[in-house]
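Hello,

Following up on my earlier ticket. Below are the four sequence lines again, exactly as submitted.
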Amino acid sequence: MSALGLPRVPSQSRREHVVQILRTAITSARLNPGDRLIEVDLANELGTSRAPVREALRQLEQEGLVASYPYRGSEVLGVSQAEVEQVLVPIRVTLERFAFSQALGRLSGADFEQLQLLVDEMEEAAGVGATDRLADADIRFHELVIECSEQPHCLQLWKTIQPRVRAYFRRDAPAHDDPVGVAKQHQELLDVIKLGDEATVLDAVDRHIHLHLAPKPPPDAG
Amino acid sequence: MSALGLPRVPSQSRREHVVQILRTAITSARLNPGDRLIEVDLANELGTSRAPVREALRQLEQEGLVASYPYRGSEVLGVSQAEVEQVLVPIRVTLERFAFSQALGRLSGADFEQLQLLVDEMEEAAGVGATDRLADADIRFHELVIECSEQPHCLQLWKTIQPRVRAYFRRDAPAHDDPVGVAKQHQELLDVIKLGDEATVLDAVDRHIHLHLAPKPPPDAG
DNA sequence: AGATGGGATACTGTCGACAATCGACTGTGC
DNA sequence: GCACAGTCGATTGTCGACAGTATCCCATCT
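Thanks for your patience. The regenerated structure is below:
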């Protein structure tokens, strides 16, 4: 097909394509908990057959974004506040603590450049109020560090957890209260990583992730 | 087919069937890290077409038991000791702490009976040295409590974590050192659950899970 | 009117065939 | 002998069609 026209589509399999479309639709609240997902409709809409759609649905099921019932179809799932706060976020802390510590010795100069670019992107997105771009860069920042940790299970689990957390915050917590602060926190985190002291990094990771959870409940101090 | 002969096979879909076969083969070390999984061969061996096999492989990929590469096939994955000890087990603790606390108010008399049956099964299996039966009952015990917690994401994540942990211990830590002790520990855990005090239960869960990790390093006390 | 049974209906589950891709082999030119 | 292009076999990715199942609707009976 297309010699020069649109060479990007075939670079990823149709299954990956479908997964990405649906995951974005769910995490951005275009699809909501309870919405039914009908294979043949999705296939027609996305211009494929049902096979890739089915595999995509199985993957999203494993990511906890959809549930499916034999012969009765699939629906979009929601997450409770209790599960996010007591399960998903603590798990994310465990994953990132380990991944960041493993990544410390493996981050190359190119990696640091890439991370800095992402922080810059966050600053710019925060400046113009582009919360989606901000969130994308935020996620990509963390994902990049975890990729560099070279811990496959860690990365795989993170990818499973993260969309649910994002869907929850996108739906129930109207974006970041303080976009500029988010960018700044990542800059600080990056600076700490560059110093390379494990204990300091782990501490920074803890505080960093929990900022998402409790945006402004400082009852003890400031 | 078969009006009375073998009515159990069709109760689960062929995909579930394939998943179960492969997962068992991996967690029981009949398949080892690096082994290639070829769709056509699996399909022929299991008497189905490739479609259910493919979906099963996608699911196992999400469970971290296999990895697959576009147009190049799938292989069985292993887990490192560091990942088990620093990632998978801590995540399991997080999941079970939450699930057990949520389950406390929801466990019915029938549930307690079922749990007691599983503990009895463990005792018997431990008595005759049937480590696989012991491990099955062990897993089922925890799974049952988590099911009763009615936290879908918790259950889903637990099902994702657990096979990797089991595969690791089955492969690298030759079964439980002390089968009778395992059964006894579950009886104690069940007794604590029956009492219903949350703090005590959480404490028991912590200690219970960590027993798997460090089977016999009691440097401080007994 | 309300309960009950027998289809239509709308999906999902499975299959066999075909297209696309990767990796190894092989023959050729230098 | 060695680099390199072409080819071939093995295996995955995708498709369209058919089989199986749950749900709803409606005629029928009480």
